[in-house]
Design a protein that fits this description.
binds flavin-adenine dinucleotide; 3 domains; FAD/NAD(P)-binding domain; Fumarate Reductase Iron-sulfur Protein, Chain B, domain 2; five-stranded parallel β-sheet; binds iron/sulfur cluster
Length: 462
């Protein structure tokens, strides 16, 4: 008999007032009993609506059936048939709008905690079996591939190519591999050890990872072909921050979320010995309503800010951030100022930010994105006192690779043009992830990396 409880097993977490002062993981993961109990809530539906909601088509009921008999290792194996980063996706995928959003149990009550079960299976596997040295016997196929960028798109593409016998080199601009998983998403949401383990797995498969290598500057795409690479995958993400173009954005104390999060996550600015500290501000305004904004706000709180504001021009309903992140941010004391838009950042005589002028908004008719258009309320200006402003209103792909690669087309948003296989307008050059779609999700980037790898294999094995 399935467990017909209307609610999910709750996720054990650090106390809000304790965790908002440290960088350790917030969600602690299910215990084995909780995972076993949660698995019993799945009805093993014949038409599997949850699978249709998963961008990489994990056979969700099949892995949960294995968890129902405590075969967690088997469950992990089932998940990895379709996804190469379950420990990451179990933690950061927006399940509520994907698999869990389609789960039958969600019609009357809460959906099955699919993400939490995925994370449990991955963590269980990592703790129990992963330390065994795997015997890998991969027959080489003679194809030499270069992967640009080591985010989820690049790592997945590299893994898929290496598994199938290609000689793969990953070129990463930063000094550590992992992309946004390492420099963007904070430790308290995604421990870096989880990502490092995935990267080690690739190295075990023979993938070479060269860091501090900026394609377009250290070496170009054409020079990679001259060096004997047969195919190139570009997974360079969308790391170029957008700004609002309002007065005062160049004042001291105004950051892009990317810079702020990179200082904190990659350069560990929260440690006293860090070479690149971040300003310890008292009142911080974070402009935006996505996952990036939530991460920046929660980091600012952890760095000791008294008041951290999320300033978002639409209402909470339209916020693109994962529900869990919004919920956790509120618990941690982040103040939400919705239907509010900055019009000017104001500084003192030394050029340092002291306040932000905002206006109130209302919602009008839906715009091209389908969300209600924010409209300024007349005579609604007010001042928000703040000594740091973090702009988190989206990012675009960096034009460096496009500018140094003749014949590589991009669209009007600077995203690389690629077909459904990831093939760009240059022969044997493939691309995927945020570099093609603009800022999106981990799982979509992974899906694109895998599709492109399969297309490369299909074409070059001929
Ligand atoms: P990236 O992860 O951006 O990786 C690209 C890599 O390419 C980087 O390491 C970069 O340094 C490197 N690179 C760039 N240019 C070059 C070059 N010229 N030469 C060599 N290397 C280069 N998604 C979710 O699903 N859930 C979340 O909770 C979530 N939270 C997020 C929080 C933050 C703060 C951010 C910024 C994003 C978040 N996202 C989330 C989005 C998600 O992380 C991205 O969609 C995903 O990482 C895109 O993967 P990618 O491989 O395409 O690019
Ligand atoms: Fe289980 Fe929900 Fe999927 Fe049905 S829709 S198989 S209950 S996870």
């Amino acid at each position: 008999m399935p467990n017909m409880s209307l609610t999910k097993n709750s996720m054990p977490t650090q106390e809000a007032n304790v965790r908002n002062k440290n960088f350790s993981e917030v969600a602690l993961g299910y215990s084995e009993d909780q995972a076993f109990d949660e698995a019993q809530r799945c009805l093993n539906c014949k038409n599997k609506p949850c699978v249709a909601g998963c961008p990489v088509g994990i056979d969700i009921p099949a892995f949960i059936e294995l968890m129902k008999v405590r075969d967690y290792k088997g469950a992990y194996g089932k998940i990895t048939e379709s996804s190469s980063l379950p420990a990451v996706c179990g933690r950061v995928c927006p399940q509520e709008s994907q698999c869990e959003g389609k789960c039958v149990r969600g019609i009357k009550g809460e959906s099955v905690g699919i993400g939490r079960l995925e994370r449990f299976a991955a963590d269980y596997y990592s703790k129990t079996d992963n330390n065994e040295k795997k015997e890998l016997s991969i027959t080489k196929n003679g194809i030499k591939a270069a992967v640009v960028g080591s985010g989820p798109a690049g790592l997945t593409c590299a893994g898929e190519l290496a598994k199938n016998g290609c000689e793969v080199t990953v070129f990463e601009a930063l000094h550590k591999p992992g992309g946004v998983l390492v420099y963007g998403i904070p430790e308290f949401r995604l421990p870096k050890a989880v990502v490092a383990k995935e990267v080690d797995g690739l190295r075990e498969m023979g993938v070479e990872i060269i860091t501090n290598a900026v394609i377009g500057r250290t070496i170009t795409v054409d020079e990679l072909f001259e060096q004997g690479y047969n195919a190139i995958f570009i997974g360079s993400g969308a790391g170029l921050p957008n700004f609002m173009k309002i007065p005062g954005e160049s004042l001291k104390g105004v950051y892009s979320a990317n810079e702020y999060l990179t200082r904190i996550n990659l350069m560990k600015a929260y440690l006293d010995e860090s070479d690149t500290p971040a300003k310890r501000a008292k009142n911080v305004a974070v402009v935006g309503g996505g996952n990036v904004a939530m991460d920046a706000a929660r980091c600012a709180k952890r760095l000791g800010a008294e008041n951290v504001y999320i300033v978002y021009r639409r209402s909470e309903t339209e916020m693109p951030a994962r529900l869990e992140e919004v919920h956790h941010a509120k618990e941690e004391g982040i103040i939400f100022k919705t239907l509010c838009n900055p019009v000017e950042i104001i500084g003192d005589e030394s050029g340092t930010v002291t306040k932000m002028k905002c206006v109130e908004m209302t919602l009008g008719e839906p715009d091209a994105s389908g969300r209600k258009r924010p409209v300024e309320k007349p005579d609604s200006e007010f001042i928000l006192e703040c000594d740091a402003v973090i702009m988190s209103i989206g990012t675009s792909p960096n034009p460096l690779i496009k500018d140094t690669t003749e014949g590589l087309d991009t669209n009007r948003w600077g995203c690389i043009v690629a077909d459904e296989d990831g093939l760009t307008t240059r022969e044997n050059v493939y691309a995927g992830g945020d570099a093609v779609t603009g800022a999106a999700t981990v799982i979509l980037a992974m899906g694109a990396g895998k599709t492109a790898a399969q297309a490369i294999l299909k074409k070059l094995k001929k």
